[in-house]
Amino acid sequence: MSTQSTDSFASGATVVKETRRELEQRFERILDEHGAAISRLAYSYEAVAGIREELGQEIALAIWRALPHFRGECSERTFIFRIAHNRGLTHVRRRRPQQQSLDDLEETDEPVDPRPHPDEQLAQMNQQERLALAVQSLPIAHKQMIVLMLEGLSHAEIGEVLGITECNARVRLTRARKALKESMGVTQ
Amino acid sequence: MTNHRMTEDRELDLWRQQWSRVAQPSPEFKRQVQERIKVQNRRFWLGSLLALAALAGTLILAFYQLTHHTSRLEKGQATGVFVLLFVAVVCRLWFMRGTWRAETQSIRASVELWHRRVLAQIRGVQIGIYIAIGWLAFCGALAAANWATIRLELMAHPTAYFAMIVVIALMLPLIWFGAMWFRRHKVAELNEVTRLLEEMEKMND
Question: Fewest C-beta atoms under 10 Å: which of A132, A149, B106, B175?
Answer without folding.
Answer: B175
